[in-house]
């Protein structure tokens, strides 16, 4: 049985779904980012739409709430001229007891071309991709604590924009890596891009086991971990972590791991600060850093639209080429 | 009626009949074939006669979970796996915590008339881990031991009381070493789960529970069988406890001998288990535990499910594998991977018989109960829909072939081959 990493590629190694950054090659990621760069240049134009996906139907399946990711997928699909349908499944069929499998079969019957899936269970987009009819592409918009590949790609795009090729950079990821699909996907992506120095900075309660097996060095003291890094990625701290007894308080987290101007000075002078958003000021990041010149958080959002356009265009074009071969 | 099975190789280490080429069966017992007059004769074609296997952990699903399996269907599956005695878990719906529940299981088993079914009951009411069930009345109704099913005790206080009470009445307990507040998670807290972001179960959930329960055994003298060890450290702790003379025994599930955490890489829901698959090192230590005799028994931990239970993203599927009908083939497969058949056979015959205090089971020996399996160890066996007997097709073996073709199976001296003829019929091309 193929896993998510194998299922997302067709026989020629082209991307037919995007389920995880695990197993993607440097070449494939580079070509995605190049395409995204191309779309980015169209985004400054007065007319932002390109006709690539005219006549195609993109269905956003959000089994878990999300505002930003859903909005950026929406905008990305619209800018590619696709028809977009957004289904908030939480309030519809799932709450009536329909299984994911039956929901899927129903939506499939509606002749969509691409499903954008967000789900609280890790592996849900894989489950869907494994069972949909072959002409439908599936893009993972975040599943449980498994993966958030478009976020990782937009992070890589931002890193490339500001710092160049990750293959000679030091990247530090700070915060709740244990529960973060963003961190997991970024780590797999950075590894694919041959990033030589990936660091995780967090207390033991927020680190998953055996992170070293993924080629990540772990630090419990932020001062040690930040020394000389080019890129700082902050992760959002969920309030549930305190009630689960993993952390004493947001205040203590900020004191130990919050990104302040003083700490930022430990990194390279031209280091950039990234955050997948939404940010908690005074928890992961101090105001001065969030609003300072080294923060590229809003550029990440803009890049997110271009990356999602690239992913949709690429997966649908692979599906079309495969369909031609089949016929 | 008496029977002689001849032209066979009897494989029952430790028995006076080991290596012999014929055996007699009369009144449900193995006898010397020479003393039988006019017996029926069964030609064994040079195949091997094994003692019937004893499986200490099988979920028969009845009562209440008949959509997953029934006593009739799952005991047939057991026979097709070479298993002639199953110990049934109490986590049905309703659970087995009253004498009436025990009688119901025994009656259904009698009606099914397949393999020997030995029920277990729950130590605590409803399996909630809070209040003691009527332990002695359950034993009087026919349970062979009491357990907590998949659920842990709610507190150390109730665990201590359960062991004290059981010790005073000489009731054997089967315990899953897991702590209430560390249970849960669908994968071992290791590199595979970290890569996939699966919710995790720490090995400490097991190792801490083993140490805690060993202290309680030491304090109370209760006879405890630890079920489904998954970690190398737990094997070490059990080894130490045994050398100190504590009245403990333990088992490991077939899945934990066959697979490790790497099996989860493809998010195949068959590998979602109640006790997660752990590291390669753990798997090796469990195999070595069988060879050294530290681990007494192997269980199938058979857990059949309806298709819908596994038709969901990995973390949302129900845990468990339908494995009992692959038992004998799995032992042959393990033999090829370095766990010698002689050791795994012991762990499914004489050792579990001894743990249950049923010393008339588990060997092909004069005067023992005539449970045996006639098998061609080199014959191929097909595990597909047409040959599958369990209601649950949730097995990594489903759709494959395995070694060990069964040609005959006897329980209490009665020929039960016809019960499994669909499963073992020969239509391999």
Q: What does it look like?
A:
By secondary structure, chain A is of the alpha/beta class. Chain A has two domains: 4-148 and 302-326, Rossmann fold (3-Layer(aba) Sandwich); 149-300, Aspartate/ornithine carbamoyltransferase (Rossmann fold, 3-Layer(aba) Sandwich). Helix content of chain A is 40%, strand content 14%. Chain B has two domains: 2-49 and 366-424, Urease, subunit C, domain 1, CATH 2.30.40.10; 52-356, Metal-dependent hydrolases (TIM Barrel). Chain B has helices spanning 71-80, 99-112, 135-141, 156-168, 191-196, 204-220, 232-243, 254-258, 280-292, 327-336, 341-346, 350-356, 421-424; strands at residues 2-6, 9-10, 22-26, 29-31, 40-43, 48-51, 53-58, 83-88, 116-122, 145-147, 173-175, 187-188, 200-201, 224-226, 248-253, 297-299, 372-383, 400-411, 414-415. Chain B has an eight-stranded parallel β-sheet, with helices on both faces. Chain B has a five-stranded mixed β-sheet with strand order 2-6-17-18-19, covered by helices on one side. A four-stranded mixed β-sheet of chain B has the order 4-3-1-5, with no helix packed on it. In chain B, strand 9, helix 3 (135-141) and strand 10 (145-147) form a beta-alpha-beta unit. The longest helix of chain B has 17 residues, at 204-220. Chain B is globular and about 65 Å long. At the A-B interface, helix 5 and helix 7 of A face helix 5 of B.
